[in-house]
């Protein structure tokens, strides 16, 4: 149940982040083509959250291990590049999710982590 709540929080964070960044577009999902634009965007954002969770679980550790020397010499800043690469990979996998370029993906990953952290504050207060 907690995983489902985290996915919904991540989907809302994706929607909020895409609203504030110009180079990120969410909509026109292949799984739903009804009249409601808000439902269409939320399903795409939920799909992006699922794909990002999968990529962060499977692909990110592999990329981190392969780039360990670069990450060491940049004092961990190369992890931001890995996050941007994962966002661009999610762009290719999810129909209806569009990121304009590397720098937009980098900003998207930074803002997404901040928004997700902020939204998780409310989720933790409700659990107590």
In short:
The chain is mainly alpha-helical and 128 residues long. The protein has one domain (2-123). The protein contains five helices and two strands; from the N terminus they run H-E-H-H-H-E-H.
Describe this entry's structure for a reader:
The chain is mainly alpha-helical. The protein has one domain (2-123). The chain is built from five helices and two strands. Strands 1-2 form a two-stranded antiparallel sheet. Helix 1 crosses helix 2 (37-66), helix 1 packs across helix 5 (102-127) and helix 2 (37-66) packs across helix 4. The two termini are 16 Å apart. The model has no long low-confidence stretch (mean pLDDT 86).
Tell me the layout of helices and strands:
Blueprint: H1 2-20, E1 24-26, H2 37-66, H3 68-73, H4 78-93, E2 97-99, H5 102-127
Antiparallel strand pairs: 1-2
Helix pairs in contact: 1-2, 1-5, 2-4, 4-5
Low-pLDDT parts are none
Q: So what's the oligomer here? A: single chain
What number of domains?
1
Describe the global form.
globular
* Percent of sequence in beta strands: under 5%
End-to-end distance, in Å?
16 Å
Q: What is the count of DSSP helices, taking H or I runs of 4+ residues?
A: 5
**Biggest pleated-sheet summary:** 2 strands, antiparallel
Mean pLDDT: 86
Secondary-structure-based class equals: mainly alpha
Q: Count the beta strands.
A: 2
Order of helices and strands: HEHHHEH
Helix content: over 70%
Instruction: Supply Rg.
Output: 15 Å
In which order are the strands of the major sheet placed?
1-2
